Amino acid sequence: MNNKKLMAIFSAVSITLMSSNVFAQTFKMAIGDAAGGTQWELATKFSEMMKEKTAGKVKIDLFPNGQLGNEQDTVNDAAIGLLDFSVLAINNVTPFSPTVGVLTMPYLIQSADEAKLLTQGPIGKELTDNTIRDAGVRIIGWAYSGFRVLTNSKRPVKSPADLKGMVIRVPRNEIMIASYQAWGVNPTPMAWSETFTALQQGVVDGQDNPYVTVYAMKFNEVQKYVTNIRYIFSLEPLIISESVFQQQSPNIQKMILDAGKEATAHSFTFLKNTESSIRNDLEKKGMVFVEPANGEKEWIDAIKKNVWPKFYGSIGGKDKFDHVLKALGR
Ligand code: MLT
């Protein structure tokens, strides 16, 4: 083939690609939980939306169950451009972006609607900007997973005193570690990807996560008792490497942001439609549900006294916390 012909073919191909303004590409997305939970719903919806918006030119390969590393490692990998996307719990972003810790301040968020208000309004926008600055990743969507409840394999727990002698796994998150300390136990910080095995082998006796996560991870096979504490409403962002985002054309960037919003809306509806039936399924599978004593008063009092004041600094100051409380009408 002569040079002229080659040039003609090359420019025809370029024109086709440029006219659609989308180049065929495949991205990798890490997912901390097993398939079937809220993280999976967010991820699959996002990837479907991207496929639809780009007429199949963008494909997203999903890697559930921590296959691409533990959740905290995926933040590092995305920050340096080794990984494109990750869906993980917000508590595993906080070590890299301390101001998002406000979303894991225990007993701050008291309902799914409050979680939506904070993440989708100006406070969520500010936290997203801070996370780009501090962690090199951009939050483009949210999974709403419900309250983190406490599970254990030993006995019914109603009050913090009932935790005495139990080994409880927590994420490597200072606010959550301090919460258990305020309840009188010294918890064991452990990566999410190691938690099922640690529960199964009895290295730890308990942990906390929402019903939907307990179900997706099959924790009912290794845990018996559930205490319905409502200390943290679990929020699980979809993040993209900021360097990968910046490499995309404005057209693709817009599609990514729009798909993230659509997947977020889907996640909210998914939780509303499935949470109580998942709770009932867990009961049918043998889990025993326990309500905290005295309307959770002892749990709440210990946190407000010993945990809130300790973390005002890291989340941006007491004024910032008060501003968030005010946004929630408190
Ligand atoms: C954790 O407990 O580390 C996470 O919240 C688990 C999750 O991502 O679902």
From TrEMBL:
Keywords on this record? Signal, Transport
**Which CDD domains is this protein grouped with?**
PBP2_TRAP_Siap_TeaA_like (cd13603)
Biological process terms from the Gene Ontology for this record are: transmembrane transport
Record GO cellular component, one term: outer membrane-bounded periplasmic space
Please give the superkingdom of this protein's source.
Answer: Bacteria
Q: Which InterPro entries has this protein been placed in?
A: DctP_fam, TRAP_DctP, TRAP_DctP_sf
Q: Which residues form the signal peptide?
A: 1-24
Q: Which family does it belong to?
A: Belongs to the bacterial solute-binding protein 7 family.
Q: What is this protein called?
A: TRAP transporter substrate-binding protein
Organism expressing this protein natively: Vibrio casei
